[in-house]
Amino acid sequence: MKKLLIVLLITTSGSLFAQSSPENLINDFFVTYEKDAGKAVKDLYATNKWTERIKDGIANIVSSVNGFTESYMGKYYGYELITKKKFSESFVLYSYLVKYDRQPLRFTFKFYKANDKWTLNSFSFDDSFGHEIEEAAKLYYLNLSDK
Question: How far apart (Å, rounded) are the C-alpha atoms in residues 93 and 123?
Fold first, then answer.
């Protein structure tokens, strides 16, 4: 019994420690997302007690991600980091490419640490980032000097 208790305590403290950074929260999100997209979103929002005020918006996001079925989006192949932007020691943004047969999606996570715990500040997704890459490739953004 003592051995079981020790293992349980180590396992519990490990999972608490595992959620001490935005990266770990995102990793947990994607592990759950692969099995149950709606639960992944709910768990992510559960890191922030203030999201109780936006239950309807969260329910809409859950409904949307639950709609990314294999018959609608094709097979899910995982995710890749697009960018990470650190605005300060307490606010960061992560953008990921989420890969499906039909098309890629972009998931954007913003995390905030008011004191000592990272929480989700906002989560969004879209499929309209193609125009951004086209815009970035325009000549007036390119360095065409001979240097």
Answer: 10
Kindly report the CATH number assigned to the domain that includes residue 39: 3.10.450.50
A 10 A CB-CB count for 111 gives 23
**Structural domains of the chain, count:** 1
Rounded to whole angstroms, what are the CA distances from 117 to 15, 51, 136? 14, 15, 36
Classify residue 147: in a domain, yes or no. no
DSSP single-letter state for residue 129:
-
Please report which helix (H) or strand (E) contains residue 106, including its range: strand 105-113
pTM: 0.80
- Rg over alpha carbons for the chain, rounded to the nearest Å, is 19
**Strand 76-88 to strand 105-113: parallel, antiparallel, or no bridges (unpaired)?**
unpaired
Residue-wise pLDDT for 83-124, tens only, equals 999 999 999 999 999 999 999 999 999 999 999 999 999 999
Q: Domain containing 16: what range? A: 2-141
Give the C-alpha separation, 41 to 65, whole Å: 8
CA gap 96, 9 in Å, rounded? 33
